[in-house]
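Researcher: Re-running this chain for the archive, since the previous output was lost when a drive failed. Same request as before.
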Amino acid sequence: MGLFKNEVGRPSNETIKKRNIFKGVCFILVLIIIGLVVLLLNEKGIISINNGKQENNSNKVDDNKIVEKDISYGEKILNDMFNTKSLINFMYFDVDTFNSDVYKTYLAIDKTESSKQNIKCEELFDNTILSRVNGDYYPNSYNISIGNDEYLMCTDGENILYNYEDVNKNYKKLFGNKNNADKKDFHIYYGIVERFGYSNKKDSFVSLSCQCGDGGFSYLSGIPRVYEQNNKLYIVFVYSVADYNGETNGTSYWDLKLNDGTSVKISDTELKDKETYKKYQDKLDKYTFTFFKEDDIYKFEKVEKVTNN
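Model: Regenerated structure tokens:
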């Protein structure tokens, strides 16, 4: 096509202007095409745009996010904290007891190294709470009343003591640095396991004997779910008592109590199988154990019964 030229044969200003407009349009079209290609590749995951921003976001932890944990992890936490025996070997799973300072102190004592001392009961406890046991069967022994015509017994001689300061250190490890073990000059006891009395004279807990019996029941339990959320650990726990039903053809049977008031007959083999709870978990009482994180470890906060079971 013909060009407008000036008198010396060069392109005119109008021609130069048209050329610049054409170049500008071509440049914009190239940028648009490049942008579309980048967006397409980013969408397909071939490249990633805003890399720096994405890396910063990846470092952020969503505290609200629920993170499911393996069941074995929850089993280990509960066993390390409570010991299976002291946690569930009771006729009634009492939430108030498990959340009490007395029970928590018992757990701290259970984690504390003891010392044996040849010492008399009167050197441990005030005479106002001691009463000598009648008869020759328990010589040099004293009763400590715990109410309801029940007694714990102290005997002169070799006694097992747990220093309060040592117990309190374990208490803080289990239940938080802001908390302290229960320190009262009366008994600490729990169910069918060991009993202890606090000695104000020695600032120690003393292991005491009792006429407690053995329980005479069994139970079915399991952990259907473990998860983390908001820097806390939640362990869902199902549990029910099983009463002995008798023996048939060499097999023992138990009546497993369900939360609808009925019961189901199961064999001794089923009761001992750790997977049996899965069959009945929707009809067993359900509890949630809550742990909070402190010093980079989980510490027990509370247990609650799930009401919408």
